[in-house]
Amino acid sequence: MTEPLSFELSRDGAEPPRLPVAGVQAPGPADVLSKDVLRTRRPDLPRLSEPEIMRHYSRMASLNYSISEQFYPLGSCTMKYNPVANEAAASLPGFAGLHPYQDEETAQGALELMWQLERALCQVVGVDRVTLQPAAGAHGEWTALRMIQAYHRSRGDKRTQVLVPDSAHGTNPASAALSGFQVVEVKSGPDGRISLADLESKLSGSVAALMLTNPNTLGLFEREILDVAEMVHATGAMLYYDGANLNAFMGVCRPGDMGFDAVHMNLHKTFTTPHGGGGPGAGPVGVKAELVPFLPHPTVEKSDGHFTLDFKRPKSIGRVRSFYGNFGMLVRAYTYILAMGGDGLTQASLDAVLSANYLMKQVEGVLEIPHGGPCMHEFVASAHNLAADGIKALDVAKGLLERDFYAPTIYFPLVVPEAIMVEPTETESKATLDSFAAALKDIVSQARTDPAALHSEPRSLPVGRLDEVGTARQITAYLTGQSEDPILRWKRPAK
Amino acid sequence: MPYLVHSPQEREEMLAAIGVESMDALLADIPASLRIHDLKLPRGLSEFETMTAVRDLAAANRVFADRLTFRGGGVYKRFIPTAVAAVTGKPEFYTAYTPYQPEASQGTLQAIFEFQTLIAELTGMDVANASLYDGATAVAEAAMMARVQTGRDEILVAGYVHPEYVEVLLTFSEGRGLRVKRGDQPSAKTAAVIFQQPDFLGLLVDARALTERAHSVGALSIACVDPISLAIIAPPGEYGADIAVGEGQQLGLAASYGGPHVGFIACTKDLVRRLPGRLIGKSHDAQGRRGFVLTLTAREQHIRREKATSNICTNHSLCALAASVYLTYMGEAGLRQVADVGFQRAHYLAERLAALPGWEMAFPERQFLNEFPIIAPKSKPLLRKLAKKGILGGLDVSRWFRELKGVLTFTCTEVNDPAAIDELIQAVSA
Lengths: 495, 430
Hints:
The complex is a heterodimer of chains A (495) and B (430). Chain A is 36% helix and 10% strand. Chain A has 16 helices and 12 strands. Chain B is built from 14 helices and 13 strands. In chain B, helix 9 links the parallel strand 4 (190-197) and strand 5 (220-225). Chains A and B meet through helix 3, helix 4, helix 5, helix 6 and helix 7 of A and helix 1, helix 2, helix 3, helix 4 and helix 5 of B.
């Protein structure tokens, strides 16, 4: 089943919606503006009635898998249940109706919420201050690196390199490069953890920071983290924490205590604000005292029970986003933290680790687990053992879709061949984990008996596997003038 | 505990299945010196108590009635059709992830494809991306595209571009090798001229002349536009701009103290491979059924890593969905209607305010749409007086621009009914 585009459903005769009229005696645009300012060609927008619009989008919604209906074991993405209370909180008129340029006196509740959220996040990750401004994880990474850069520069220290493990997410090296750093890769050892010997050889007075996530992208805790921190700090460099995997240890340990100087968090992962099909999220960054002067402005301050925005921060790296960040997401995260409390957040992480280990145990012997031993909140399996049957990680992923599960993260981390990265989270029941393991077993047995059938999955979804290569080729044809169809948008067919 | 599913008994069963005695065995890799056993945070609350606490914070804000809000400056109160929240509130949309598995994500993918088409139509450009964080980061990403395309590093900011957008551009430029300067006279060193139409004060700029001047020295023209205004005035595509960017908050999103909103970016054919962020393309399966996929991913950070020219990983999908529902609901005629109503009411308000003693238009020779700058006597006490009467008066722009002392910008949309305008005039005159 597929749904036509709104443009294809459009009917020329459909009436426009009933809207307010001006109701005042005043000239219109055509009376005042000169002709060359006015638009000549009308935009070709769809014309549909409200009933048609609602049905169109409802049908489209039904084409999606989502956390509300399916298990979404996407490694590193922390797809946990999104509490409905969060949504109710963010849509309260006292928040949703607030204009960002109101006087601070009239926005005390919003400022207090931001202040309280900052305090709570400081507690969870063990830092001194947090900026809530970054709109997403990658945005937070880059914000942190800019602060680290400003810190070094303020000391007259021109450091040009950032170290990034080979297993890191692609945004890490991209964020470092876009801060003007040269990216130097640090290798993983045979057990999947960072190689101290390789780190030692790459550290020097030119290194501004090491970017690390812990547990690492293989779901393994970096046991030697305290040694890593000491080595990094001894050279005057800073340690940056990528918070993608924070869900592993809230209330169990804290990045700040491990020696991390800057810590980014994803509120849309750990703190249950929804992913929205790709955003909006929020990527706050926590810092230790020495980085506080460099925080983006404005910060939220409290004195005598009164909350203010502080724009006068001479060493600040500046603004990274307009206004005060994705405020609506901050409301959701704060609501979640209030409901969970310190005890609930701790239990959430313990359950996340328990679920991952339990599921890994069920999957052992079905798929390869290249780096065994207890995992934290996620584990990486490999479909390498199915290679002889011509089955790849991609086929396993598509087979899971056919069996009503969303697919794990595949082909990441890059250091594991045919990687299948599974993160079950604390909000999936034992019964769900069991049925997921059963589905994987079914796929593997099918790989052995009838691999061709697996190659043609999914069969019962709205569409089967799509010709992605063909799409890219057709776009090239458009861009080079060989085709009129842009592929990246609908275009009215020529009459 | 809220939102957790395992019962104590199930936890025991799972530990037994793993073959360990306790959770500590699973956490053995964590050095003892790092191990904590709780967080210094209050214990969790019931939903009732949670919502009471959150409602109290919401109630500590003073929200002005939409009809009595005459303040804009980049965020505007507008009529939002109920259909918008009814669609974005569907859990199939808001609890889905980035559509990595296209077979199971056609709803999100098609919605973004429609968004890309709607933005391309509205701006008159060839192609739009799946959205960005906000208007400010859209401007900054566009500047980076120009740098990569032209190999030049100077970015000229012409006229009154939103001051926060310029601040974000400055923060972005550090490390990306951009030199941001103010001015409207590009040279052979200029990568792009950035202007806002209408500008931060609400005034129309000569977008055509700025674009021609940029092109005459081989620089790009980047137009930061108000999407509703494009129902009336020439879109960037009609005057030959290379990149169109802007803030989409007005397309069905609440003010929400400044976010989340949605940035958009659209460009000419020549620049498509320089676009940051996600792009959705049309495809088909083996049976010939049409479907949509993430495409041209070779531009992105997960492939290019440190060679990527943007680190953006996601978009603001759900906000883009809101914008799509809004634009589909309005259609071309509806969009023109709200743009016209705002235009007429703002001109009516400007005329009445300018007739008051001591008031005068700040730039009487310049044209505007639905937001305008006016010199108000005793502007700061005036705003306080209006607030007492429940009116959110104009925006004091001297906060950013010293030369605009005493200047307030007022905005009108379809929510500011004629009676509200009368109330404002009375309150000002009292």
